[in-house]
Design brief:
alpha+beta, 8-stranded mixed β-sheet, binds phenylalanine, transit peptide, ligase, nucleotide-binding, mitochondrion
Amino acid sequence: QSEDTINVCGQEYTKDEWTNVTPNILSKTSRKLHLHQSHPISIIRQRIENHFATFKALNRFEPTVTTKMNFDDLCIPADHPTRVKSDNYYINATNMLRAHTSAHQLQGLESGATKFLISGDVYRRDEIDSSHYPVFHQMEGLQYFDMDPEITAKQVQDDIASQAELAANTVQLVDDTLVKPENPIQDRHAPEAAQAVVAHLKHSLNSMVRALFKDEPNLQVRWIDAYFPFTSPSWEMEIFYQGEWLEICGCGIVRQDLMDAAGLQNKIGWAFGCGLERLSMVLFDIPDIRLFWSEDERFLSQFAAGEIVKFKPFSKFPPCLKDISFWLPEKDWNENNFCEIVRGVAGDIVENVTKIDDFTHPKTQKRSVCYRITYRSMDRNVTNEEINAIQEKVRSTVEEDLSVQLR
Ligand code: PHE
């Protein structure tokens, strides 16, 4: 491997000005948490796969995809903001670590299956807190029907009738999302056909959530309108957890251009993408997303294949807080770049990064920010010297790489 190339999942790529994957991130591509039988992420994957028992389960796609698969194939325009370098991990201008399992929708459609699930690790540059980590796992689901208003409705009814009763429990499902002009049925779809598939989608996801949460009597779930370039109409499903609504799933009716691209002009389908960490955090009571990556036996030994048990926290180690303030450069400031540096230097010892001050000097118009970094290990005590050394490294790297002026 030379200076100009980079090896990702066993393949050599030429680096260019888009390359922003880091060794820390690349080290996660071989972990495959969703395939470790007794890991919480895998237990949830298997639960969902068992629930959708007649779907073909595809869970071995590598996380390296082309930008065409991640964006273009999904009707995401060339200038769409989700493509920005600061939100994604690019291998180079045309290859990246997938940002969602939707990157494999077309492959799924081309596999010949009329209903399938795709699970895997996905990568996004993001903020740092207890529910955000640059790598997480998603499960994609897709099912399609014949596109003929009479046939579609009949197929949908028969399919729902063939399923077991919805788990009778008290999960509170709120859905007042009627199809609205801002979240429209596609021109190519007869309203009757689209409505039938929407009903099937909602039925499918509601029954999945009810099955998963059958022992959580007070869980609140809601549907809200959403937008995705590759579905219309589109929704999100959220669950109420620890005082806030957590998005667990995006979904909608698949854009017909995508069905066309797979040679399925006469079919109409729905798709969803669910975050497996969010579901696992709620089901297993796992308080911090970093725990999923722990190799500590005190974590791993608590779980067994097929079982959902409540996680018993081992003693929480004390945090160490450090503040960093600096003047921002005139241009090109991006918070995710800052978080990436903190992650790169501190690894999983960083628990949270929060901006605690943001000030613009009235005369010079120069902007100064202050971030509070919480360092805490999941499995041991950290020493002040060790954190000071990390903080020093963060300071010098930020100064050098982001052209800020430390205060
Ligand atoms: N890929 C979307 C995301 O990651 C979720 C999604 C999947 C939405 C399938 C619609 C259909 O947010």
